[in-house]
Amino acid sequence: MAKRNALYAQSGGVTAVINATACGVIETARKHRSRIGKVYAGRDGIIGVLTEDLIDTSKETPAAIRALRHTPGGAFGSCRYKLKGLEESRAQYERLLAVFEAHDIGYFLYNGGNDSADTTWKISQLAEKLGYPLACIGIPKTVDNDLVATDNCPGFGSVAKYVATSMRETGYDVASMARTSTKVFVLEVMGRHAGWITAACGVAAEKEGEAPHILLFPELAFDPEPFLGRVEAVVKAYGFCTVAVSEGLRDQDGKFLSESGVRDAFGHAQLGGVAPRIAALVRNRFGYRCHWAVADYLQRAARHIASKVDTQQAYAVGKAAVELAIKGRSAVMPIIVRKSNRPYRWAIGTAELKDIANREKMVPREFITDDGFHITARCRQYLAPLIVGEDPPPFKNGLPVYVKLRNVSVPKKLQSEFKI
Amino acid sequence: MAKRNALYAQSGGVTAVINATACGVIETARKHRSRIGKVYAGRDGIIGVLTEDLIDTSKETPAAIRALRHTPGGAFGSCRYKLKGLEESRAQYERLLAVFEAHDIGYFLYNGGNDSADTTWKISQLAEKLGYPLACIGIPKTVDNDLVATDNCPGFGSVAKYVATSMRETGYDVASMARTSTKVFVLEVMGRHAGWITAACGVAAEKEGEAPHILLFPELAFDPEPFLGRVEAVVKAYGFCTVAVSEGLRDQDGKFLSESGVRDAFGHAQLGGVAPRIAALVRNRFGYRCHWAVADYLQRAARHIASKVDTQQAYAVGKAAVELAIKGRSAVMPIIVRKSNRPYRWAIGTAELKDIANREKMVPREFITDDGFHITARCRQYLAPLIVGEDPPPFKNGLPVYVKLRNVSVPKKLQSEFKI
Questions:
Q1: pTM (2 decimals)?
Q2: What is this model's ipTM?
Q3: Class for domain A156-303, per CATH?
């Protein structure tokens, strides 16, 4: 088979380990030079592909590519830009194919969540219809851990480790001061619809009375009275109470507690600020001194406390994507398959993109305790292995050293410009 | 000299390394058994002393005491309880002396900020006046780094490392997404009056254009127009802008931007929530998508990313306090003295408590750039060594392992109870 170029793009919210996946893609492609020519990357994700703004990763040294493994954020840029159906977004899809053809792209590797799986799948359909030979591989990535088919999503384990560590640490802090100072502490974490990150906070509580004491899941409508009752009982029992709350917590009418009215490009409401509302609720009822934190991007950028299992899996799905592509597979995604819990063993499997596209995996009800405020033993068994192992970046002068790539542009070949 | 007991208490907001100081105190005292009998600790700080609720640290194993070195929070409990002048709070001071006498306390070691230095100094005066032999040693601790006399305060270096790391990491995240998503990110950090933690964020920006781009210090009245102008210029130049703001930011009238009306036991306003206000200001002016985070207790509890210099200094001041006490010194505090910058070398010195009590060290104007939005080279030279070195706690199952002490009570000897 002729040697053709590969195109890699990052999509949606970045993570602490999406660059580890990029590293897996590029290092693996460099080992298959007879099959893969250059690896290009879309600058700022799919927007860079549409506008023919491509990056030539062959201009990066092996050391720079290796450093991607420990660098957070998206090294080539990412974006929130959703392609709709093939008919609705026909101009976009045709443009993508035109760019692919101009740059002899034989492998398209799209690294994102369920929206991106949908886009990758549609591109594969169109390429097939037009007779353009293209291996379309989706690569899983999302801190939300909400992709179906895969046991878990690269990116999630590291956020999980960060939030569980933070809850444990603040638990020690608040416990020390509760007699005269803060009695209730609320940490707001990400997870718009699926409460996996909220659930992960719960892993820190290994014994009765340990932080966090209460979890508020987006899967369950928030009912203030049982919550306040639980806060009071916890404060009475332990002297303090720590709460982890999902940014996506909704009231009984399905309305986000933090609704700000702002929406992103996908039409999703832009959230933030449920923690201060929960803290105010508690303070107004009981007069307890409350503190709250909103971790926001800190949680998904915290490469310094990444899970080793997560960085290994992130790299592995990147490597597997290239291997699937050169085997001629298309419309598939490498996934994580759990082989056993004790010891935790995993392998890379494969799923069809059409089975992943536009679906969300919520925290199942049996992973949440009957009262709705914590995780069950079964949930803990699922989550525990995903945060295991430390894989710190190198430090210099007391700070982590992260790489900035040169990101050299590929000369344009098309005459036409494409407006985003 | 006769063998007498020591009493150690933690005061005010806890830190990631105050227990390293406790470790230094107890391990050192255990090496001087001919001079020091038991080391007692006040349960929940000075409140435990007033109520004769003491902890017998001799009941803890060497391994448990050693583990204090890597455990955040206050292992014996801390409190916000301010003693006023000797006349005004006469009953409290007399009670303290009664408890000391009942338990044959010859050494009082009080671990806190400038309020605690004041209390320790007053106790030393009273003891001297009453002819009660007592070595009163203050031990520095505060994330705010606002004690005078000492070059820096144990507790600060670790918060500094955490916030600088977080700003660097979120900078990589926001840069990746800025084209279509968040353009401006605001991180709120602690520091009510002194902007040392805000300044520490600035250490992450080693080159032009790196995060954080703008620092908002509590030392400088906030003026929206120059700030908004700077945000716009940074976004135009780099595509995104990251801001670190002190919780204590005030407007031109001296009012906290985040004023919530709640006050703590020291009469200080309880703050929180200036980041969302700054973000709203930017969004309303430019329409930029903004995100914000409030690190709150996460920053001062983050033992997992403690500065090694900080943990060493925290231990050293605890050790030095015991050594000063058995030398018969009183009304003093062991301090950090900077011997040189390159290489960074430090030693333990001694300062008089009366020179430290109730004074605050602000960030000097020459440490802030002329425009008021960043740190100068001189400030960077001061801050840089304080965050150097990693000293992670042990991890098990993916999470840091912290110690919970047994905290066995000392039998009471006084007949009278004392109401707080």
A1: 0.97
A2: 0.96
A3: alpha beta
